[in-house]
Specification:
The chain is an all-alpha fold and 96 residues long. Helices cover 82% and strands 0% of the residues.
Length: 96
């Protein structure tokens, strides 16, 4: 058998097995995504995001109350609150 024939046969064999390898890899990735550990982490992240959203809503209320009324915040306190707001806004998934 010639070298070209062997190379072509090897290439054809690879082409035939690649789709099966892809399907197997996708199935393994799907199964890994369905594991209990991943489900638990998803739940923990959803809970953390819910609390972060509540904190952001509370932050907006506090800032609006002090901006609308005659109340004036000490500059340090206001700086802290603004930094808290900046950090909350950087959380992915927060609805602004």
């Amino acid at each position: 058998m010639s070298i070209n024939y062997l190379k072509n046969k090897k290439i054809m064999d690879l082409k035939a097995t690649i789709p099966n390898q892809i399907v197997n890899a996708l199935e393994e990735a799907y199964q890994a995504g369905q594991s209990e550990d991943v489900q638990e982490l998803k739940f923990i992240n959803e809970e953390a995001l819910k609390h972060a959203q509540e904190a952001y809503e509370f932050f907006k209320v506090v800032m609006n109350r002090f901006c609308i009324t005659e109340n004036h915040l000490e500059s340090t306190t206001k700086a802290y609150l603004l930094e808290i707001g900046n950090q909350l806004e950087q959380i992915k998934g927060i609805k602004k």
